[in-house]
Design brief:
InterPro entries: AAA+_ATPase (IPR003593), ABC_AA/LPS_Transport (IPR051120), ABC_transporter-like_ATP-bd (IPR003439), ABC_transporter-like_CS (IPR017871), BCA_ABC_TP_C (IPR032823), P-loop_NTPase (IPR027417). The protein is of the alpha/beta class. About 35% of the residues lie in helices and about 25% in strands. The protein is globular and about 55 Å long. The chain has a domain of about 130 residues: Rossmann fold, CATH 3.40.50. The protein has a 6-stranded mixed sheet, sandwiched between helices. The two termini are about 35 Å apart.
Length: about 250
């Protein structure tokens, strides 16, 4: 099987500082890969290189075997890379359902005509309902987005990301800023998306219990370099990873 995503010697330097250095990985379709590493290891920068927010100073990004290194973020989204912050806006004064319906409409290419036709409108709304069910936010359909709790807002963002229907999902710390009580709900949402089985998911996450629960593969970034890439079992026994742990790699974990 061909990898859906591949990086070859991917590198970006800011001034004299190499934030991501020579990272070569292959991600197989419909797998779940978590990217771990301490603060400043280059995880978000690596995502920026995949989604096109940043251009590398060296190396390549390939999607389905095609070199996409010079393509814009919008082109990459159309080709199948979805990243949560690419959603331009959660409209705070619209309801949860309206926000997701607009994301569904945008994916269908209907931006300006709010009511294209009653049949289409009903189909968009039905899809929005289904997405809200996936992210366990159905009870909040009628709430205004601005009234959601932080964890619920993240769920809304995930529903809007799913509306893009990209095969690849880049999730950058979906539990960031959440209270401990909110974390299990997000874990359940991600588990559910994984169980649907039709996506390739890359997750940046510090919460190791969550990472071990979800991942088929782990990538460990350390000072911008790929320290290891393997199954969670092998990674957890890897001496280099262990010494990185002992060296305080996860001091910041919560
Ligand atoms: N636009 C930029 N200009 C200069 N330096 C940058 C830029 N973006 C990232 N860096 C630097 O690159 C390094 C990697 O940062 P990055 O945010 O990718 O780390 P991270 O692994 O995602 O960390 P965290 O876990 O804290 O989110 C850091 O030293 C950061 O300061």
């Amino acid at each position: 099987m061909e990898p859906i995503l591949e990086t070859r010697d991917l590198t970006v330097a800011f001034g004299g500082h190499t934030a991501v250095g020579g990272v070569s990985v292959k991600v197989m379709p419909r797998t779940f890969t978590s990217i771990i590493g301490p603060n400043g290891a280059g995880k978000t920068t690596f995502f920026n290189l995949l989604s096109g927010q940043l251009r590398p100073t060296g190396g390549q990004v390939l999607l389905g075997g095609k070199d996409i290194t010079s393509l814009s973020p919008a082109r990459r989204t159309r080709m199948g890379i979805g990243r949560s912050f690419q959603i331009t806006n959660v409209f705070p004064s619209l309801t949860v359902l309206e926000n997701v319906r607009l994301a569904v409409q945008a994916q269908a290419g209907i931006y300006y005509k709010l009511f294209a036709s009653p049949a289409k409108y009903a189909a968009f709304e039905e899809k929005a309902h289904a997405l809200l069910e996936t992210v366990l936010l159905k009870g909040k359909n009628a709430s205004l987005a601005k009234h959601l709790a932080h964890g619920e807002k993240r769920k809304l963002e995930i529903a809007m990301l799913l509306a893009l229907e990209t095969e690849l999902l880049l999730l950058d710390e979906p539990t960031a800023g959440m209270s401990l009580e909110e974390v299990p709900a997000i874990l359940e949402v991600i588990r559910k998306i994984k169980a649907e089985g039709n996506r390739t998911i890359l997750l940046i996450e510090h919460k190791m219990d969550m990472v071990l629960d979800l991942s088929d593969r782990l990538m460990v970034l350390f000072h911008g370099k790929l320290l290891a890439e393997d199954t969670p079992e092998t990674i957890m026994q890897d001496e280099r990873v262990q010494s990185a742990y002992l060296g305080g790699m996860y001091d910041d974990a919560s």
